[in-house]
Write a structure and sequence with these properties.
The protein is an alpha+beta fold. The protein is about 35% helix and about 25% strand. A hairpin with a 2-residue loop joins β6 and β7.
Amino acid sequence: MSVEVEVKTKGDGKHFPKKGDKLSMHYIGTLKDGGKKFDSSRDRGSPFTFTIGVGQVIKGWDEGVMKMSLGERSILHITSEYGYGARGAGSDIPPNADLVFDVELLKIGDRKLISKAEFEDFKARLESWRAAKLTKYDNDAAFKEKRDKKYEDRAGYDKWLSAEVKTSLDSQKEYIKEQDSSAS
């Protein structure tokens, strides 16, 4: 009477869901006995979104998924008591069926892991934003006057812009995934 988590691809090891978090996941559900697939978000091409720890999903998910970290792909081995129990679920899940779910934790709230390439693209867009702001400063007297009141001069304005870029980059660094776990 439990759920066992078998890690297939490690997550970031830092960000774990808490009760009440909105999660986005991919999954493939199969019956332990015989391996018949009964549902798959991957087949639909659309992740499943729900709130963890509040009874929106079976107990095996509420308990097992909270042990996973962001980006992790695992197999949940769920006994019937932590699944649909004696009632089963429709014609696809018989009474007292143990279940196996291949699950991947894609997002916790609005946080998801990003690839190194996505991070570099984000960095390039921020640097482009900074350069555009400095160009506007150099070419628009009214804009320059407003910025000089707040930042004293171009160097002060550039220092502020650079700090904004750094803050944005630092906020994303911990979400860079080390490996691609999106394989099906």
